[in-house]
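B., you asked whether I could sanity-check this one before it goes into the benchmark set. Here's the sequence:
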Amino acid sequence: MPAPDLATAELTLTGRITTASNATFLGSIGDTTVVYKPIAGEKPLWDFPDGFLAHREVAAYLVSEALGWNVVPRTWLRDGPFGEGMVQLWQEQDPAQSPVDLVATEHVPETGWKQVLEGQDETGRMVALVHEDSPALRRMAVFDIIVNNADRKGDHILAMAHGHRHGVDHGLTFHSDHKLRTVLWGWVGDALTAEESAGIDRVSEGLDGGLGTDLADLLSSEEIASLAARCARLRVAGRFPAPSGEMSAVPWPLF
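And here's what the prediction gave me:
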């Protein structure tokens, strides 16, 4: 029996993800498990008043594909039980891995990890926010910079059993104003690798072709121009930027 068409075959809901801030459902299309976020279930946001979060999620996937790094799982728009929305392939993460963690400051690993900040927990103990120092997470950090991700929480990073890292929940992206909020600040000032630079170039080139055409159905012209400008600035700088502006550089909560 042929596999069902993921764009048109029946989408059946199997549960609701109650920890999400907007309506988010677990579902299936044939034997394929998916996440479904209907546009009708999106809550209005004062700082993202234009467009739909579902469109930004799909736009993030398209940029991920242009980069060539498989940061974002396959994501597309389609109709569902509550109308049009974003559908994304479900990823079964490895619960034994924690790419981002809070640890006691005296237990920060000396190698293989980057410390982002430190503070006090609810008991007054000094703790540090750390993340792994891996190529997969570096690529995700580059992705977040160019899409202007305002909500890269620790739990938005999925650790796959084979070592890959997926990023999810990209509704708060592509704003034309600087809004980068992320837990992945460990490489501030580090030079981009040749692979990272080449990925950014692929996005810049794509914006003049098919990628730009596809994004025009999802984002405003101002947002696409801002995406192009961020790519250009990052390539000229050649290194990971430091936090800037008056807003918080990390999302809250962190996870």
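One thing to flag: The chain has a mean pLDDT of 95. Otherwise nothing jumped out at me.
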